[in-house]
Amino acid sequence: MQEAHEILKKIRHLELRTNRLVDSMFAGSYHSVFKGRGMNFEEVREYHPGDEIRAIDWNVTARMNTPFVKKFTEERELTVMLVVDVSASGDFGSVDSSKRELAAEVAAILAFSAIRNNDKVGLLLFTDEVELFIHPKKGRLHILRLIREMLFFKPRHRGTNIAAALEYLNKVVTRRAVVFLISDFLDGDYARPLSVTSRRHDLIAIPVVDPGEEDLPDVGIVTLEDPESGEQIDVNTSSRALRGAYLALEERRKRAIDQSFNKLGVDMIPLRTNEDYLPMLRAFFDRREKRRLAS
Description:
Blueprint: H1 2-33, E1 38-46, H2 58-64, E2 68-75, E3 79-85, H3 99-116, E4 120-126, E5 130-137, H4 140-152, H5 162-172, E6 178-183, H6 191-200, E7 202-209, E8 221-225, E9 232-236, H7 240-264, E10 267-268, E11 271-272, H8 278-294
Parallel strand pairs: 3-4, 3-6, 6-7, 7-10, 7-11
Antiparallel strand pairs: 1-2, 4-5, 8-9
Helix pairs in contact: 1-3, 1-4, 1-8, 3-4, 5-6
């Protein structure tokens, strides 16, 4: 009973915090940068001077013997998919929040922004397999359920398979959606499904990094454990060569991730557990807005 109370308390706290941020910063930005799937036919009406000639409905015009034009309205409703990595490496956190907690908070902001815009939001949680899929729906209670799952879902597996998650998404979400892929991207080859997803959907990648994973502190001989495989290894962190090699490996890995997204034209919102995420979200919306105005 106490555990359930604590879960509800945490969800409620996250709802209040993210709702304030949505109201003050992101609801308008979200509406302006994410467009609907297209235009819906609404009605025909008589032609007025200044109307587009291309909008004339020639069939109705012929029947009525006077020009009529087709009127369209933008189809605003979107489907938003939160594709969230819940593998064991997400539980790591060397500061106040773990990677998984940060991912859940940012995803909550995006979800509440979406329902403010009357959009549907769905959730896919994955490890080295798809752990949970919740169909896109509207409404506050639905969003609270998604937040609960992102924070407290207990996955059956520990590894990461981004390719499998994207392949599943592409099978079950057939209409174009806005897809936020949230992960630490500690995985191997997922270039092909990433490319397919970026063509089918509006894909935004959100890499989550913790500073404790980026370098090895000089603390002597320690046992390191891979949280996903459970493999352990003893290393001498006093070795300058070892620390340098580890740092270089991390830099190469991050560059490879950045290059793969840039090559496909996939937007990124890089997050760090030791930094405020609000500037990165604002920068993302600003980039999108400038691109929209320039097009």
